[in-house]
Amino acid sequence: MKKSFITAMKQQVEFTQKKISGGVALGTGKRTIEVQNNLLKRASKIASQYLSWESHKDELAQAYMETYSLEELNAISRFFESDIGKLYIEKEVVIRKRLQGMQGRISLAMRPAIEALAESMESELETAIAEDMKLGK
User: Which residues, including other chains, have CB under 8 Å from residue 77's CB and lie 6 or more apart?
Assistant: First the structure.
């Protein structure tokens, strides 16, 4: 595969790694900040271990080779080498950050409904299990 295509794949892996290892300060006290920084360093180390480009490049390359023909991979590579392809790589990070924010807002909006569903499921399953036990089934 061409270098620009591999560079684009690598950037996607690195973006995911940064997203997981990044964080938001939860407190402002000296000790809290110290603990948060320590936790972020540990999270970053774990993310680096599991999400590094080196640890996944062969598997990603294999997935692309099994999904696309050589002709298609060459066309994709030419795209990433083009001016518009380079612009895509540059701006895709911005889009992913916005999507990340959207996903966070959606998750927060969904939380009450998911929690209500989980409570309902628990209650309904407990009732069903009790009924089954009474019937000896």
Answer: 1, 2, 4, 5
How confident is the model at residue 32, as a pLDDT? 78
Structural domain total, the chain: 2
The answer to whether residue 87 sits within a structural domain is no
pTM of the predicted protein model: 0.46
Whole-angstrom Cα distance, residue 83 to residue 60? 24
Q: Is residue 134 part of a domain?
A: yes
The CB density around residue 61, as the number of other CB atoms within 10 Å, is 15
End-to-end CA distance of the chain: 59
CB atoms near residue 9 (< 10 Å): 19
Is 86 a member of any domain? no
